[in-house]
Write a structure and sequence with these properties.
- The protein folds into 2 domains: 196 residues, NADH:ubiquinone oxidoreductase-like, 20kDa subunit (Rossmann fold), CATH 3.40.50.700; 121 residues, Cytochrome-c3 hydrogenase, C-terminal domain (Cytochrome-c3 Hydrogenase, Chain A, domain 2).
- Helix content is 25%, strand content 12%.
- The chain contains 10 helices and 13 strands.
- The strands form 5 sheets. It has a 5-stranded parallel beta sheet with strand order 2-1-3-7-11.
- A hairpin with a 2-residue loop joins strand 9 and strand 10.
- Helix 2 runs parallel beside helix 6.
Length: 336
Amino acid sequence: MSERFSVLWLQSGGCGGCSMSLLNAESPDLYTTLELAGIELLWHPSLSEASNDDFIALLDRIRRGEQALDALCLEGSVMRGPNGSGRFHMLAGTGRPMMEWIRDLAEKARYTLAIGTCAAYGGIPMASENPGEACGLQYEGGNAGGLLNARWLSPGGLPVVNVAGCPTHPDWVTDTLMQLAMGELSEAELDELRRPRSYTNHLVHHGCTRNEFYEFKASAEQASDQGCMMEHLGCLGTQAHADCNRRPWNGEGSCIRGGFACINCTAPAFEEPGHPFTETPKIAGIPIGLPTDMPKAWFVALASLSKAATPQRLRDNAVADHIVVPPNTDRRKGGK
């Protein structure tokens, strides 16, 4: 039997939300998925029973090259403060900043993964004046170069793999680990922000349950309305790269399905859009955040035509919190 693909999971400056999401994996559950894929979780801060001494001994063995490590997963931003010392986040029992451990272990691991947007680009801890000097593993916001330099490659020949999301979908994590374990994740399978194309070749807009309202530009006016949230309520689903509505959490959940606008949490700097998340900024009444791959003039022209053709059913339902007008039954074609 071949050796199992070993994974070490560390947490830095974050809320632990990606781990919580990971535990919601189902069909199969997380442990079954890892077992079937031949993946061994060496240590995880929330799932492992090893003592602190055992954990530190494991890190020392990896650092000395005595313990093989296939994948280092970091959840949470790298905390470099104050003044670049990293002493805002010391790894308990070692007397060393976590950022130094991360840098050392990344040089030993065959692959390094940033789990979540905080680890990938800095995320929430990097917002505002960034007093903790937070950054991502290989990005600082949208700029390449964080804890590791922009040209850094792992011993396996890949840059940091950014499994971005806030939080990540459990399948994005396990799919990426399985691809690496099978040797099927090349740099060509990463997009320009080094996110796996397995989920970023889609838009959140794909599979959205409000797409009929979007097509006719029948817009919601307040949070409880059923209509499209792009025009007034800040939804960025037509620009956000993720398959949230094609592969919802637990088979049912996504932000939009829960009544919340997409805030493009897989992208750098999503945490500071420059306006309230639930408002769509406009110029001369036209939303700024239009689909990125369509000329604005065309979109405005098509939107005008769509609004002119909007069925009354959609106009009424868009500004209601439930279906008030069901679709008509066409009896002209033999319906009974």
